[in-house]
């Protein structure tokens, strides 16, 4: 995913919601951000990560996936428990469960560990991010295309900025009951409808090309994805195409007090991110 401000949103919320003055030194701001919202796991040996935690801290866990993801997250959760952390807010994925394809399976294992840890937890289960779109659409011969295996399945894509807002809300209000929050955007378009919305926003024709799983696997492999991951990704898209991500939830609005950003809003804000 590209960033488009999700981390910046968290950062500014952390500052807004804290007592740090706007003209504070950058070091002070960073310190407050780490205190309020967590620290980056990569590059930090577990011991130093553990020593960064204090009783009562609120911990935000979010990162990409990598082969060591599950053991590293387990380790961090155990360190948080030992440090008497007050709450863990973790970004996961809708439908996460052990054995699910790709991130769903990894997140499922981490979720199970977190729930059994004795820590207070909030799990955020977003569907696909709108922020993926600019990297997926490619322009050749004057026409834009993006590929998938979703068929006519609808997906309630979410703007990652709303995930950041939800996380910031949960991390800065009193710790509530343990809960899993399924996060979606306000509507669930088909991929043809997404293509039409992108075309309107960019003033250039963009088409969605639906491919059978085999064909999409080959295409993803040619783009550099290892074979098994390419197959799993194509299969995941076909699974999602059965409508399992087609329902939308009112969770973003219930937690933040305002509706989630629409696809049109995302496209207006980020039209410049598409490589025309
Ligand atoms: N993308 C989606 O559509 C989607 C949908 C549902 C759920 N999710 C879940 O949401 C999470 C974030 O997804 P994403 O697409 O934003 O991922 P991403 O772009 O691949 O990674 C997010 C950030 O994680 C940081 N990161 C990378 N390696 C790390 C490491 N070893 N330790 C700590 N941080 C590391 C990087 O920060 P820096 O840039 O600072 O290096 C990176 O920008 C993932 O767990 C994913 O499974 C994603």
Overall residue-averaged pLDDT value: 88
Strand line-up in the sheet with most strands: 1-2-3-6
Biggest β-sheet: count, sense, barrel?
Answer: 4 strands, parallel
- Gyration radius, in Å: 19 Å
Number of strands: 7
Summing up helix and strand content along with how strands pair, one would put the structural category as alpha/beta
Work out the oligomeric state of the chains in this entry. single chain
Unreliable spans are: 1-8, 14-21, 24-38
Features:
four-stranded parallel beta sheet, globular, 7 strands, 276 residues, binds NADP nicotinamide-adenine-dinucleotide phosphate, disordered N terminus
Report on the structure:
- This protein has about 280 residues and is an alpha/beta fold.
- Helix content is about 45%, strand content about 10%.
- A four-stranded parallel sheet has the order 1-2-3-6, sandwiched between helices. The protein has a three-stranded mixed sheet with strand order 4-5-7.
- A hairpin with a 2-residue loop joins strand 4 and strand 5.
- Helix 1 (about 5-15) crosses helix 2 and helix 4 runs parallel beside helix 5 (about 105-115).
- The longest helix has 18 residues, at about 225-245.
- NADP nicotinamide-adenine-dinucleotide phosphate binds near residues 41, 62, 64, 103 and 126.
Short description:
By secondary structure, the protein is an alpha/beta fold. It has helices at residues 6-16, 26-37, 46-51, 69-82, 103-115, 133-136, 160-172, 191-202, 213-222, 227-244, 251-256, 263-270; strands at 58-61, 87-91, 121-126, 138-140, 143-148, 179-183, 206-210. 46% of the residues lie in helices and 12% in strands.
């Amino acid at each position: 995913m590209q960033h488009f401000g999700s981390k910046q949103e968290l950062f500014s919320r952390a500052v807004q919601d804290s007592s740090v003055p706007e003209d504070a030194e950058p070091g002070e701001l960073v310190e407050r951000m780490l205190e309020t919202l967590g620290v980056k796991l990569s590059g930090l040996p577990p011991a130093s990560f553990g020593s960064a935690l204090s009783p009562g801290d609120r911990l935000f866990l979010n990162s990409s996936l990598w082969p060591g993801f599950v053991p590293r997250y387990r380790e961090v959760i155990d360190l948080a428990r030992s440090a008497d952390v007050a709450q863990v807010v973790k970004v996961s994925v809708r439908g996460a469960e052990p054995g699910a394809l790709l991130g769903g399976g990894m997140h499922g294992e981490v979720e199970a560990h977190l729930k059994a840890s004795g820590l207070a937890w909030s799990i955020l289960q977003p569907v696909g991010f709108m922020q993926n779109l600019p990297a997926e659409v490619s322009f050749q011969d004057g026409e834009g295309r993006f590929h998938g295996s979703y068929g006519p399945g609808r997906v309630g894509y979410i703007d990652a900025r709303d995930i950041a807002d939800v996380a910031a809300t949960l991390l800065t209000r009193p710790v509530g009951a343990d809960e899993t929050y399924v996060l979606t955007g306000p509507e669930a378009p088909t991929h043809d409808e997404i293509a039409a919305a992108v075309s309107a926003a960019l003033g250039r024709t963009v088409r969605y090309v639906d491919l059978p799983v085999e064909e999409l696997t080959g295409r993803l492999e040619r783009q550099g994805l290892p074979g098994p991951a390419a197959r799993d990704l194509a299969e995941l898209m076909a699974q999602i195409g059965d409508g399992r991500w087609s329902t939308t939830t009112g969770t973003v609005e219930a937690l933040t007090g305002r509706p989630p950003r629409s696809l049109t809003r995302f496209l207006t804000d980020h039209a410049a991110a598409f490589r025309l």
